[in-house]
Amino acid sequence: MTTNSRNRRTLAVGTLLAATVFTAACGGGSNRPEDTAYVARDVESLYAEARSLLDRGRPRIAASLFDEVERQHPYSPWARRAQLMSAFSYYVAGDYNKTVASAQRFLSIHPGNKDAPYAYYLIGLSYYEQISDVQRDQKITEQALTALREVNRRFPSTQYAADARLKIDLVEDHLAGKEMEIGRYYQRSGKWIAAQIRFQNVLDDYQTTSHVPEALYRLVESSLALGIKPEAVKYAAVLGANYPGTEWYEKAFELIEDHAEGVTAS
User: Residue 121 and residue 151: Cα distance in Å, rounded?
Assistant: First the structure.
């Protein structure tokens, strides 16, 4: 696990414990989950055993026991607590699909609960943890962006939204990087219009990301290759106005001097 992943797990642990007050004692019950997983037990000791397992670093088994709390005692207040703790335990175990399923189940049954913000946040984190590099399909990245935006939209003043906003910036930069990677591929293949569309997507959809200066430069390149010199001049002017002194502006300026000097922007 990377340091960033450990930090995110720590944040998830801290925010859950801070946001949700659980009254169960941490003692009681057997330390052998195989003896308790499918045996009818009173709700308090079953819940306490699950918490104990989670605290001792056995989150997957703890999640199963939290699920068992709901199965054996579906109408008790403990069932609601156990649903959210199950989602959290699966997250700690790295089982993100089950995390999402458990959190969504919690929200479907308790949409207005005070812990709903955390359930939405867990869903966003679960997608975020699965983001792959820009060479791969970005469906999960888009799901992460949607889920994190939902946290920010619904609960803008919470600590979850504050963290979600930071992650949204990183996810958008990642998606912009994917657009750039595809656009550069099209350029190398001589597919200038397809490249132009990808670079324009960066300007339209990810205009606060670190990829914008290069996208503008690539649009200068593509416009010149397509013979649309006024457009190339326009993109170079935008680049100079917003990112003067960057390597991308210097390169764009050289291109304009060599291929479109004296042309007026459209």
Answer: 6
The Cα 147–Cα 164 span in angstroms is: 9
If the chain, 266 residues long, is cut into consecutive pieces of 10 residues, what is the mean pLDDT of each piece? Answer: 48 47 36 48 88 95 94 89 96 96 95 94 96 79 96 97 97 95 97 98 96 98 96 96 95 92 76
Tokens of 178: 């994917």
Domains and their CATH numbers in the chain: 1-130 (1.25.40.10)
What pTM was estimated for this model as a whole?
A: 0.77
* Structure tokens belonging to residue 129: 């943890």
Contact, 132 vs 140, CB < 8 A? yes
Residues 127, 144: contact at Cβ < 8 Å?
Answer: yes
111's CB contacts (< 8 A; 6+ apart) are: none
Burial class for 4, CB neighbours closer than 10 Å (0-12, 13-18, 19+): exposed
